[in-house]
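User: Please predict structures.

Assistant: First:
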Amino acid sequence: MRLIITFLLVTVYSFAGAQVLSDCTIPELLRSTYDRDVKGLAMKRMQAQNSPDNLLIDIPTSVQDSIYEGMAAILNTMSEIPEADSVFNLYCVHDNAISPAVFGMIIGVDTDSPIATAWENGNTFTGNAVLDTLLADHGFVLQSYLSFGAGVLYSNEIWNIAAIADSLSGSVPGIEYVEPDFLIGGAGRIEYSTDETSNRYYAFRYEWNDCFDGCDNFYTWNFTVASDCSVTFTGIEEGGVFGLEGLPEPANCNLFTDTDEVLTETPVLLFPNPGHDQVFYRNAPETATWMLYNSLGQQVLSGGTQQRVINTSQLTAGMYWFKMLNENGQVISQQAWIKQ
């Protein structure tokens, strides 16, 4: 006798319809904290529209800013729409599950090619002018070479790697394929769309109880941002494979509630991001302290700026929050960091 278990997805909608006037001015902290999210949403939007911009290696600023402006409008309603505070400060929702925005790419090569020889010897640059110019212009550095014929390259910035693949395919002898080095797993997502009247629609989905069988619970906050930047919270959607569960304790990153914040003119740069067993930072003052928090808001590492490298080898894969304070205890940097 076989026991057959049926998993049900339960979805509950709750709606609210008050329209709130807001402001689309984009805070710098929103740009730095949601850079990867917005670039990924921009690429997905371009793909959905079959836009000619899909061929551009640089993700168009105009597409990004339209997404940022709508997110800023939602963020700026936190005092009137508490659900916005839940998204940005309590549950800290990011687009982790399906974002195409990555810092790295894998280039498959003929193992007998000069490219393979250069990478096998640990050299980023290969002697091929087309490939080397592209790598240099976009800040790519060889991370590793895999013996079956693939170089893993990372940059400190996000580019449209699909466009890089198009530009290299057939133009560089020895290259067999180019693909993004995608993150595997990761709960949480953001969905973005527009309509013919310039309304922008956002769904911020927080996920938990994640497992390889897809047994997520989720809770989604939905917002509409009109062309005049007014915001309507349009309700929540919740569900789960095993039925409804209440929201867990919030992560409480509180990135946008610190009133004692003094962001530096030259932002502190955390790299590589995503990273593995070490992460470095630059542009930090000589006397400062830093803290690293996990997705539950628990401090997992801390230190001073005497050393410019953080040992993250003991941390599990996932998203973390990096915060740096100056000698007066003021926040000078807050940003997300992902360990692969």
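Second:
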Amino acid sequence: MKEAIFYEKLDAEKIRCYLCAHECLIKDGSFGICSVRQNFKGVLYTYAYGNVVAANIDPIEKKPLYHFMPGSKSFSIAAAGCNFKCGFCQNWEISQKESKGGSLLEEDEFSAQDLVDEALRCNCQSISYTYTEPTIFFEYASDTAKLAKEHSLRNIFVTNGYMSKECLKEASLYLDAANVDLKFFKDASYKKFCSASLEPVLASIRLMKELGIWVEVTTLIIPGVNDSEGELGEIADFILSVDKNMPWHVSRFHPDYKFSNYPVTPEETLKKAQEIGKRRGLKFVYAGNVLGWGNDTLCPYCHKLLIKRDSFRILEYNLKEGKCIYCCGHIPGEFTAY
């Protein structure tokens, strides 16, 4: 247990947590919706500090980030728990299996320094806080990120975007990039499937852009849920309103967890989403969880191949100092690692 940040003490030993957009009102002895933050006699504690349930060396393309240090390795970690309750979660074994104050999962204890040392030992160029929701282990992530900066490591959040403005502004001091899940463009869908709301996610994407964090957006397309042309067009229009150069990853759904009776997303649906995004004016729209197509980066000026990918591997790279080698057009992102 470690005392949490971003909370306010109220009367009768109640607490208001301001870590994420839920702003949970927590009575003495109770937990917030994330199940890892507990009010103990008027003090808010986190159980997610120093307890790692997953640690891997990933290609940064797996986050997915295609315009941020492509070809580099990212030391990727997670703590148990989440502030969403998505029935279609593809990491549900670690994000949803959490028991109030006592994890049901096998955890390893690592200090922030341990994580940084391991990332450096493995020749990683960044640390990604991913697999579950990094917001709920923010104290751990922020302490690690500060140390990572001191060793020239970059910091990445793979997030549902439901953190509070205060949390995000604090994170921006050492957060370099983020991939944000924009799951739907209907508030009713967020409420039904995630026990959350749409607007805080949109606000986080806008604020990340304002704060200078490199942002890419992912939408997991679920047949019959968020695959209509109208909703996909609304998502594309929103991203366009923030930045036409913000990459949009439209990802293939596979049946899992509580959505095991739903079909796999047809490839034609992903192609339709790509076409919608490009037709609305987005410069970079990628297909995820498919093989053999949809992953390459083309120059938006001369339309020649810049980066050819096979899954998470780079096969061809035609950029120099962030510019197209054919027409010298500047490609938004950070292309210094490869």
